[in-house]
Each structure stands twice: as C-alpha cells, then as structure tokens.
Design goal:
Elements lengths: L1 H8 L3 E7 L6 H10 L7 H4 L12 H7 L4 E6 L1 H5 L6 E5 L9 H7 L2 H4 L14 E5 L2 H9 L4 H31 L7 E5 L15 H4 E8 L15 E4 L3 H9 L13 H6 L1
Helix pairs in contact: 8-9
Pathway: Glycolipid biosynthesis; glycosylphosphatidylinositol-anchor biosynthesis
GO molecular function, one term: CP2 mannose-ethanolamine phosphotransferase activity
Subcellular location: Endoplasmic reticulum membrane
Length: about 270
C-alpha cells in the first residue's frame, strides 16, 4: 500500500502496531474498540448472532449522546450492536466470505456523496463522524490466504480508498477552515479489528492474528510527527484507542476502559 505507507514515512500519519487480545474475531474486537474493555470468550458465540450492546459506556453511544451525527457503511455487525444510532447506514453481511467484491463496493459507492470535496452534496455536510468497515481483505484471507495474488489486488484497492478518503477530507477541511477561522481539522483514523494467520484465519493469539493497525492523520494535512524521525514505531494495545478518542472529542472515558492515552496523537491532533 504505497500511498498509505508514504503517509507514515513522511510524518503525515502516526502508525501503531496495536495488540488485539483474544478472541480475535470481529464482534468481540469491535466491542473492545468502542468500550476499551477486554472481551469475554462467550463473545465468540455471540459473534454469530450479535445483539445490541447492553451498555452506554462506549464511544459510539457517547458520541451520539453528545449530539454528534454518525453515518455508517459496511459490516452490519455495527448495526446490530448499535441499532437506531446512525443518521444513515447501509450494512453488508460479513458471513458471505466468498464475496470479496460487492462487500467493498457497497461501501465505496457512498463516498462520492459523503466525501464530496466541494461539499455541494447535502450529505457531505450533515455528519460529524463517518464510519466505514470494509470486509474484502478479511474475506480474501479466508479464501486464499494473505500471500495470494488476490490479496495484492485487494490491498491496492484499499490503498486507493485510503487516498480517496484522505484527499477528500483534506479538500473538505480546507473549505471549512476557509469559511470558518475557528474550525478544527478533522481526524482520520485507519484501523483493523484483528490480523490473520499464515493461512488467512483468525480467532487465536498468534502474533499474526493479534497484530492490528492503528493509524492517525490530521484532515488539514499538517504533520503528526517530524519527517526526520524515521525510527518512529510503537506497539500499543488496541484498546488505547478508546481514551484517546474520548480525550480528543471531550467525552468521558468509558467506565470499564483499560486503555492508556496515546499521548503523541493527542499532542499532535
């Protein structure tokens, strides 16, 4: 992913290898990403029949309670965990693992409206948080493994999506900040819920399965660190995302969060 890698190499993004605790499957990891709480093994069974999250101490509910308008596209696990929370949404089932194309096209097709660089489309200005959950990489892993030619093609596609999002948000931020001198830059967060093994599976505690991505960028294109600091590389816990986002948005940290603040992100964002 040359574009995505260049963001970290140039200092425009802060990237972390984020440890995801077991079980490394989608629903438990999503719960951990929004609550900061380690999942229970019973969540493996719930992964196949997700129900609404039965607690308000999570980032999504706290954002909504603070008046933030949230739009979502992608894995419908989010819609099961947070029913009637999103201003707009379009979900796709993650259990049709043979589909590596439409699951992602169903997300990307919305970006032209939601991320209109000119902000002429009414949908591009009526939300505060946009959540996109792509499934194709996970499905390719299950079908062909992480080293297949199909994975290379999917990574190239995702790199293009990252560039589309970054370029569009930067254009939107430039327009907003030109019209309002008090406007703050957007935060762009790129993350994964888990990794995958050498055969493309996940759920266990191997290094490959438990290594996830956390990557932060400013919407105005300002650097997140010095480009001369080429040695920057940190390993943190995935749940460190929770207190960090809470601090940036002025939200209370969820009660049972065990994560630690990513100070570099807060300082530079």
């Amino acid at each position: 992913m040359p574009f995505t890698s260049s963001l970290v190499a140039s200092g425009q993004a802060l990237g972390y290898v984020a440890h995801a605790s077991v079980p490394t499957v989608t629903m438990p990891r999503l719960k951990a990403l929004v609550t900061g709480k380690a999942p229970a093994f019973i969540d493996i069974l719930k992964n196949f029949n997700s129900a609404a999250l039965d607690e308000d101490a999570n980032l999504v509910s706290l954002l909504a309670a603070s008046g933030k308008r949230i739009v979502f596209y992608g894995d419908d696990t989010w819609l099961k965990l947070f029913p009637e929370t999103f201003k707009r949404s379009d979900g796709t089932s993650g259990f049709y693992t043979r589909d590596t194309v439409e699951v992602d096209n169903n997300v990307t097709r919305h970006l032209k409206e939601e991320l209109d660089p000119t902000m002429q489309n009414e949908k591009s200005g009526d939300w505060d948080a946009l959540v996109l959950h792509y499934l194709g990489l996970d499905h390719v892993g299950h079908l062909r493994g992480p080293r297949s030619p199909l994975m290379r093609e999917k990574l190239e596609e995702m790199d293009g999506v990252v560039q589309l999002v970054v370029d569009s948000v930067r254009a939107q931020d430039a327009r907003r900040m030109e019209n309002d001198s008090s406007a703050r830059p957007s935060l762009i967060l790129l993350c994964s819920d888990h990794g995958m093994s050498e055969v493309g599976n996940h759920g266990g505690a191997t290094l490959e399965e438990s290594s996830a991505l956390l990557m932060f960028m400013r919407g105005d294109g300002e650097p997140m660190r010095s480009s001369e600091d080429i040695s920057y590389k940190q390993k943190r816990s995935q749940v460190d995302l929770v207190p960090t986002i809470s601090s940036l948005f002025g939200l209370p940290i969820p009660l049972y969060s065990s994560g630690l603040l990513l100070e570099d992100v807060v300082k530079m964002a």
